[in-house]
Amino acid sequence: MKLVDKIKSGIISYIRYSNWLLIFSCAAATIYGIVLLYSVVKTGNYPDRDYKIQVAAFLIGMSAALVISKIDYETICRLWPFLSGISLFLVLLTFTPLGLEVADDKAWLSIPVVGTFQPSELLKITFIISFATHISKVHDSINQLRTLIPLCIHGALPVLLILKQGDDGTALVFLFIFASMLFIGGLKPLYFLLGATAGASAVPFVWRMMDEAKKARFLCLIFVEKYANSVGWQQNLAITAIGSGRLWGLGYMKGGNQYLYARNNDFIFTVAGEEFGFIGGLALFAILLLVLLAILRGFLAARDLKGMLLCGGVMSMIGFQSIINLGMNLRVLPVVGITLPFFSRGGSSLVTLYLGIGVALSVYYSSKTHSHDAIFSKKY
């Protein structure tokens, strides 16, 4: 009877203290993405397995997130060497003959059963965990150079590895995560000002080092007509598709510009704008904003700095990645091959995204219950 009472108490506690706003907003985002992906498959030359894999990934990812939410985040952080080791090993494998080149980026692996997998997606989550652990241990002296230099080396490692793969967009997301977590950790604004100044000073040198194709991605945002039939073609098609939807859209499964590449991936927002119009696009924005606000809820409820850093890292990852992707679709930012979280096609990336959501859920649940009934937790 005691076991039955314990199970009952655990279920009641889980229902009462879980961040249901985050769970339901993530589910809403993913389901909306699957609806868009199904339309892409049925109106374009994309395989049926795209949306089927997405449905399976949603079920697996959400289940994993719910399980992780019951594991105290202190336990998760203590596993950072093991978790980081796995993700770094997988990233390093992309530099071997096992690595696959997709869209000029050698950032993929082909894994039996799983299929193609981008290890940098998992590295984002493990970096957040390891960096949160690092900052929480040294935050009292974070503004001293002897502390800040090792933190910068920690942050530079994944950025340099991903740049070496050729995936500039993902490297940029890592940089944003790094900066956001340092800010949450208490780094003085002066350091950010110095970093921004150094970055701005380096722009001319970086520009000279860039190849002509990458330069053209920036130039086509300014000289629209000049690049309309070359590098700017994709973004012009995206803007046209979004604009054709007007207020209410052309109707579900009534869009489908066959010349627009990656409608199932980087440019899936155009499907929302084309088929559901301004209202559909606004709904997509609202759901992503709700996800970020739900994570912010966990951030504010966190019992310590480590919990805040974990939530802040996940929030910055989703937020900045969304901004970059939507900016690409709306022709205000260059195309850098960044997917839209929860919406873009990619089974393995969706599962790993939910691993990050699970960590954010763990912070909320463990903080609310003081981790007394969290799995494998310390007793506080």
Question: Helicity, in percent?
Answer: 55-70%
| Strand segment count | 3
* Total count of domains: 1
What are the low-pLDDT stretches, counting only 5+ consecutive residues below 50?
372-380
Mean pLDDT, rounded to whole units? 88
Strand-helix topology:
Elements: H1 2-17, H2 20-43, H3 49-68, H4 73-78, H5 80-93, E1 99-102, E2 105-111, E3 115-117, H6 119-138, H7 145-165, H8 168-184, H9 189-209, H10 212-222, H11 233-244, H12 269-301, H13 305-329, H14 347-369
Characterise the protein shown here:
This protein is mainly alpha-helical. Helices cover 69% and strands 4% of the residues. It is built from 14 helices and three strands. The chain has a three-stranded antiparallel β-sheet, covered by helices on one side. β2 (105-111) and β3 (115-117) form a beta hairpin. α5 packs antiparallel against α6 (119-138), α8 runs antiparallel to α13 (305-329) and α11 crosses α12 (269-301). The chain is globular, with a radius of gyration of 21 Å. The model is unreliable at 372-380 (pLDDT under 50).
Can you summarize this structure?
The protein is mainly α.
Task: Please describe the structure with a list of short key phrases separated by commas or semicolons.
380 residues, mainly alpha, 14 helices, 3 strands, 4% strand, disordered C terminus
